[in-house]
Amino acid sequence: MDFSLAWQKLNQIGHDLMLALPNIVFGLVVFVGFMLLARGVRALVQRVTRSKNNNHNLSVLLSRLAYVAMLVLGVLVTVTIILPGFTPASLVSALGVGGIAIGFAFKDIFQNFLAGILLLLTEPFKIGDQIKYQDFEGTVEDIQTRATAIKTYDGRRVIIPNAELFTNAVTVNTAYDKRRLQYDVGIGYGDDIARARELMLEAMRETAGVLQDPAPDALVMDLAESSVNIRARWWVDPPRQADVLDAQDKVLEAIKNKLSENGIDLPFPTRQILFHDQTEATDGNRRQQREGWPAGQGDVPPARAEVARPSSSQPGEPTA
User: Fold this and answer.
1) DSSP line for the chain
2) What residues of the chain score a pLDDT lower than 70?
3) For residues 34 and 27, what is the distance between their CA atoms, to the nearest angstrom?
4) CATH architecture of 179-261
5) Measured distance CA(287)–CA(245) in Å, rounded
6) Residue (of 35, 30, 34, 66) closest to 48 by Cα position
7) What's the burial of 181, exposed, middle or buried (CB within 10 Å: 0-12/13-18/19+)?
C-alpha cells in the first residue's frame, strides 16, 4: 500500500502549521491582553458611573456591556491575526446565512439577555433587596444578564431566569422603608371585645420595634365557630425578614401575656361528637332523647320501633 500521498498531506499540514505558529502565539497573546483590558475597562466604567449617579444596577449593566464589547473586539482581532484572510465582512455574511437557525437555537438565551438588560435599566429591585417569586423567597445576590441569583432565608441559592422575573409578578419585600404585619387572635364569646381590643393595642405599643406612626390597630374580623377573631396590625422598620420575625415573636408574646393576665379567654376549637344507636327501642322517641338536644313537647312522632310494630302486637312481643 502506498502511503506517499498521505505523507505528503501530513507534511503539508505540518509545514502550514509551523508557518502559522507565530501568528497563533501572537494572536493568543493579543487575546490575553484584550481580556486584561476588558477587566480594566469594566472597573473604570463601574467607578465612573457610580460616582455620577446612585443607580447601582445601571452601573453594573454598563460595566458588563463594556466588558463584553472589549472581549468581542479581542476575538475579532485575534481571529484576524491567526487567519489573515478573515475579515469582519466574511463574519457578517456567514452569520447572515445561519442567522435564522442561530436565532431559534438561542431564543431563550437572547430573551433572558434582553430581560436582564431591562431589569437592570428599570430597576424594579436591586442587589440586596428581599424578593418573593412563586415559591422562592430570599435576598438578591446578583443580577446577571441571563439570570438573577437569590439567597433563600435557609441558606440556599436559587437561579431564576430573567425572562420569568420580567414577565411575572414579583413581590419586593424591601421596596419601602416600612412594612405592616398582622395576626388574628381569637377571644371567647363571653369576653368584652372593647376591653380585649384595648389590651391588644396596649401590648403592641409597649413592644420594642413596633412603630407608633403609623399606629397599630385591632379590628374585629370574624365571628368564628369557637371564638371572636380580632386582627392585630402593626408596622415595623426596617422590613427585612429577620426584623419581621423578631417583631412578630415579641408582639404575639406580649398580646398573649396581656390578655391572659387580664382574664381574657383564648379559646381553642372544640367539637362535640354524638353517637346515635338506631337499634334502641327508644330510637326516634323525642321524649327520651339522649343526644344533647331538648325533648319535644306535646304531640311528637312515636319511636321508630312503635311505627314498625303491628297494631295487634303487644309491647315486648316479637313481630313477624
Assistant:
1) ---HHHHHHHHHHHHHHHHHHHHHHHHHHHHHHHHHHHHHHHHHHHHHHHHH---HHHHHHHHHHHHHHHHHHHHHHHHHHH-TT--HHHHHHHHHHHHHHHHHHTHHHHHHHHHHHHHHHH-SS-TT-EEEETTEEEEEEEE-SSEEEEEETTS-EEEEEHHHHHHS--EETTSSS-EEEEEEEEE-TTS-HHHHHHHHHHHHHTSTTB-SSSPPEEEEEEE-SS-EEEEEEEEESS--HHHHHHHHHHHHHHHHHHHHHTT--------------TTSTTTT-GGG--SSSPPP-SS-PPPHHHHHS-TTSPTTPPP-
2) 1-8, 10, 15-17, 19-20, 51-57, 85-106, 272, 274-320
3) 10
4) 2-Layer Sandwich (3.30)
5) 57
6) 66
7) middle
- For residue 132, list its beta bridge partners: 137, 171
As assigned by CATH, the class of the 125-172 domain is mainly beta
- In the chain, where are the structural domains located? 12-105, 125-172, 179-261, 272-314
Q: Looking at the whole model, is its pTM more than 0.70?
A: no
User: What sign does the dihedral 21-24-27-29 (CA atoms) show?
Assistant: negative
pLDDT at 65: 80
Query: What topology is assigned to 12-105 in CATH?
Result: Helix Hairpins (1.10.287)
Cell of 132: 418573593
Query: Do the Cβ atoms of 250 and 209 come closer than 8 Å?
Result: yes
Contacts of 150 (CB under 8 A, 6+ apart): 131, 133, 136, 137, 138, 139, 140, 141, 157, 158, 160
CA distance 216 to 223: 22
